[in-house]
Amino acid sequence: MTDDAPELRASDADRERVAEVLRDALAEGRLDMTEFEERLDATYRARTYGELAPITRDLPVGTVAAAPRVSMTKEPERDGGWAGRITGGEGSSTWAVAVMSGFQRKGRWTMPRRFNCFAFWGGGEIDLREADFSAGEVVINCVAIMGGMQVIVPPGVEVIVRGIGIMGGFDHREEGVPGDPGAPRVVVTGFAFWGGVGVERKVTRAERQRLREERRQEKLDRKAARRELHSAVREDAEGAHRRMLEDHRDMVREHREERREHRELRREDRDRRHRDDD
Questions:
Q1: Which of 105, 113, 127, 133 is nearest to 44 (CA)?
Q2: What is the pLDDT confidence band of residue 278, given thresholds at 50, 70 and 90?
Q3: 199-212 burial, b for 16+ CB within 10 Å, e for fewer?
Q4: pTM value?
Q5: DSSP state of 194
Q6: Contact 147, 99 (CB under 8 A)
Q7: Residue 178: helix, strand or coil by DSSP?
Q8: Spatial separation of the C-alpha atoms in residues 87 and 32, rounded to whole Å
Q9: Residues contacting residue 25 through CB under 8 Å, at least 6 positions apart
Q10: CA angle (22 as vertex; 40, 85 as ends), nearest 5
Q11: Which of 73-77, 91-95, 240-244 has the lowest mean pLDDT?
C-alpha cells in the first residue's frame, strides 16, 4: 500500500480530528462562523480521506486528514478488560464547542482526565462506550446555554453527577449504580441554563448485536424443543392409536373364532342327533 490512499474510508475519529482543527481555526479568527459551519458540515458528510483532506488544506494543520500508512500485519487485539482501557497519558480530544451546531465524540478515542464542552443553541454527544480512558477518574465539564448534551457510558462504569441547572438540569438517573471492579469513574459536572445534560447507559452496537443473536438463537432453540415435544407427543398418540387398532382387530378375530367354534359345535350336535334318530 502507498502512503497516499484518498479512496480509503475515513473513521469517526478522523472526522473528529478535522473538526478539532476547524474549532481551533474559528477560535483563532482564521475562519468566520459561516465558513466554519460550511466546513464542519462537509467534515461530517465526508466518507473518505480524499474528501477530508481539502477541508483543512489552507489551515496551519493541513495534514490532519492525510491518509495514514496502512499496515499489512495484523495488530494485537484490544484487551477487553477495564485494565486495558485505562491507558494513562493524554486524551485524543480535550474540548468541544457547538454554537448553533453540534459535535460528537464517539468510537475509538481516548477520554482525557478532563473534557470541557460548550453548547449554545446547539448540542453535543460524548459517547464513552468504545473509548479508552486517560485515568481511573475522568471529568466531563458541560456548559449548556439553550442547548443540550448527551453523555453515554457503557455498563460497569460508575457515574457521579454534580452539575447545576437553572431552568434546565442534569440527568441523575444513572448516578448511584455501582461500577465494576477496576472500571473508571465518570464525573459529570458543569452548568445548564435553559438547557440540559443527559446521562444514559448503553451497550455497544457490537454487544447489542451479540445479545440480539443470543435471543434469536434462544428462540430457535425453543422452537426446536417445541417441535421435538410435539413430534414426541404425536408419535406417542400415533403409537397409542395403532395399539388400540391392533387390540380391536385381535378382539374381532377372537370373537369370530368363538362364533366359528360355536357353529361347529352346533353342527356336530345336530349331526349327532340325526345319527341317533336313524
A1: 105
A2: low
A3: bebeeeeeeeeeee
A4: 0.54
A5: S
A6: no
A7: coil
A8: 37
A9: 31, 36, 59, 60
A10: 90
A11: 73-77
Pull the grid cell for residue 203: 451497550
Q: Under DSSP, is residue 221 helix (H, G, I), strand (E, B) or coil?
A: helix
Tell me the three-class secondary structure of 40-81, residue by residue. HHHHHHCCEHHHHHHHHCCCCCCCCCCCCCCCCCCCCCCCCC
Q: Which of 96, 146, 145 is CA-nearest to residue 124?
A: 96
Q: Which three cell numbers stand for residue 3?
A: 502512503
CA distance 50 to 9: 9
**Alpha-carbon span 151 to 104, nearest angstrom:** 10
C-alpha cell at 172: 441523575
Find the largest Cα–Cα distance for the chain.
Answer: 146
What is the residue whose three cell numbers read 457515574?
A: 159
- pLDDT tens per residue, range 13-47: 788 788 778 877 776 778 888 888 888 888 888 88
Q: Alpha carbon 193 to chain centroid distance?
A: 32
Q: Cα dihedral angle (59, 65, 69, 74), rounded to 10 degrees?
A: 150
Side chain identity at residue 213, one-letter code: E
- What is the tens place of the pLDDT at every residue in 153-201? 999 999 999 999 999 899 999 988 888 889 999 999 999 999 999 999 9
| Rounded Cα gap, residues 124 and 116, in angstroms | 12
Strands 164-166 and 185-193: parallel
CB 109 within 8 A of CB 156: no
Contact 101, 40 (CB under 8 A): yes
Q: How many CB atoms lie within 10 A of CB 173?
A: 12
User: How far apart, in whole angstroms, are the C-alpha atoms of residue 64 and residue 59?
Assistant: 10
